[in-house]
Amino acid sequence: MVAKRIIPCLDVKDGQVVKGINFEGLREVGDAVGMGVQYAADGADELVYLDISATREGRNTFTQLVRRIAAGINIPFTVGGGIAAVEDAARLLEAGADKISVNSAAIADPSLISRIAEKYGSQFVVVAIDAKCIDGQWRCTTHGGSRLTGLELFSWALEAQERGAGEILFTSMDHDGTCAGYADEVYARLSDMLSIPIIASGGAGCVEDIRRVLTEGRADAALAASIFHYGQIPIPGLKRALKAANVNVRL
């Protein structure tokens, strides 16, 4: 059985890690490289870095940051934010990223997923989906959650898989930063539909939340930010607790 993964997420703005609630109220919490080094030492399986400003100047700065991250850590990491062309993906992969994450640009042009996957392989392509539940339907958003689209979560996730995505990273905007638990039923439904790994994001507040999304939610990985950034749940203790609860994780 493939081990479940624990993945800290680091939202980056101007080289610093920031965090908010429901995608709003951002505040700085630390240095992007230093935090990544510490998480790797603590036993994180992977890291996700998202450039949330992603202007053209920011993307250039972010590329330099990716090189520094690659030089400092020894675990796989994914980068995303502002990737709108194969050339953007190429620049970040060549800088040392192990995977790239696409979101808004893939919704605008779904062929972007296929083109990157055809050049580099599906294993390099993570499709991130930010969605909120409106009148009982999970609606996808773009531009950091600020623009609502007509796309429905489950149909878009399936299309992304068919176009060559290697993983789906779904963030529930309703749960993001609340520390009130993940949208477990949604992840279970995605798991039933898809054959590629699913990364759960949004809502981790305690060990039980993570255990539940990895078991009842059947997610392949649990991504979290607040609980790690503020030291609420150290990764070594989290993994020991999950192992004791019969969740297959790497210690």
Q: How do the strands of the widest beta sheet line up side by side?
A: 1-4-5-6-7-10-11-12
Quickly give the structural class: alpha/beta
Number of domains: 1
Low-confidence stretches: none
Mass-distribution shape: globular
Which sequence of SSEs, written as H and E, runs from N to C? EEEHEHEHEHHEEEHEHEHEHH
Q: Quickly give the CATH architecture.
A: Alpha-Beta Barrel
Query: What's the CATH H-level superfamily name?
Result: Aldolase class I
Q: Strand-residue fraction?
A: 25-35%
Helical amount among residues, as a percent range? 25-40%
Instruction: Please give the oligomerization state of what you see.
Output: single chain
CATH topology: TIM Barrel
> Would you count the extended β strands for me?
12
Mean pLDDT over the residues? 92
CATH class, named Alpha Beta
Distance between the ends: 15 Å
Describe this structure in words.
It contains ten helices and twelve strands. The mean pLDDT is 92. The chain is globular. With 251 residues, the protein is of the alpha/beta class. Strands 1-4-5-6-7-10-11-12 form an eight-stranded parallel beta barrel, surrounded by seven helices. The protein has a single domain (5-244), classed as Alpha-Beta Barrel (TIM Barrel). The longest helix is centred in the first third of the chain and has 17 residues, at 56-72. Helices cover 38% and strands 29% of the residues. Helix 1 packs parallel to helix 2.
